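Re: pyridoxal-5'-phosphate structure - here you go.
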Amino acid sequence: MSKSQPNHRIETQAVHLGNHGDATTGAVIPSIVMATTFERQPDYSAPSGFIYGRSQNPNRKALEETLAALEGGAIAYAFASGQAATNAAYQMLKAGDHVIAPAESYFGTRGLLQEIYDHLGLTYTFVDTSNLDAVRAAFTPQTKLVWVETPSNPTMTITDIRAVADLAHAHGALLAVDNTFASPIMQRPLSLGADFVMHSTTKFISGHTDVTGGALIFARIDDVSARAQLVQYLGGAVPSPFDCWLILRGIRTLALRVRQQATNALALAQFLADHPAVESVFYPGLASHRGHSIAASQMYGGFGGMLSVCVQGGAVEALKVAAQVQLFTRATSLGGIESLIEHRFSIEGPTSSTPPNLLRISVGIEHIDDLIQDIRQALHTLAL
Ligand SMILES: *Cc1c(COP(=O)(O)O)cnc(C)c1O
């Protein structure tokens, strides 16, 4: 039996949830159940609830229970990637429905609408979701879903979740929040009125840069969550038992990791903000950030481990700094224990709206002095 109780704090739940032990061996952590099929009773009942690997698996069930509790939701569905989770959310809609999606977001959130669902008859409007008037103006009678990412990639735009939830509900639409950057340790959108949360569990949730996954977590069990279950089961983009086990193993240290990453990110952002080779810093924990006061009202315990910095100059100067780092790793992705630096413009190409002099940083759990020292020497190449 799991040692977790509903009244336990999130740190305790992260350590214990989904661990039902093993009555036969006394093993302290869950085993990985690789079976794709489960034996039925002579009367053909399945008292364990497990029938077939795609419909449910003990490791996936443990992960889903844990994610639901951490986000304060009623039920969660795990997917093989964050994109598979976003895809499932769009698949819950039907041709003719309209989606309000963020102009600034993970590029794949918009890409699915533009490249896949456009052909299948979904309509959509991209708006700056931090601008409530723009959101209000984007509703049509067909709007069924509003999608928000906060803080968002790459300039950490902050959207007022409660205000957008009220707008969505007044128009009979659902609000989904991509909570990948904040994690439930620093932001719980369902408590602010969102209807469901999406995670790329590839990032902070698993935290060790060794597994790809995603999830949708619903505030209520209703027709909407039932539709997500159908998409998961019939669509079949489910994570493997080992992937679920790795993600749950990562969750055990989620609270410690994310708090340290946020503490390091704030210190690094403050260092960068004062540096002469820096044009601007985007971090919601800085009072100078345009979303700071809303972030402070809806995030807690910190502002996450992601920041972006625009260096003085253009793409050449940004790439020079990225080329010079020794401790940071030049790589895409985020949320792992090691610090990464990325030139988004190079990844997104010439149509990108990301400033060419922007470097996105995923701050890890290394000692902050080592991180600052490395960035300082890298910025030194831009002798001004
Ligand atoms: C990475 C990411 C995604 C997509 O997740 P994958 O696991 O790569 O499919 C979606 N949203 C955000 C904010 C992300 O960082």
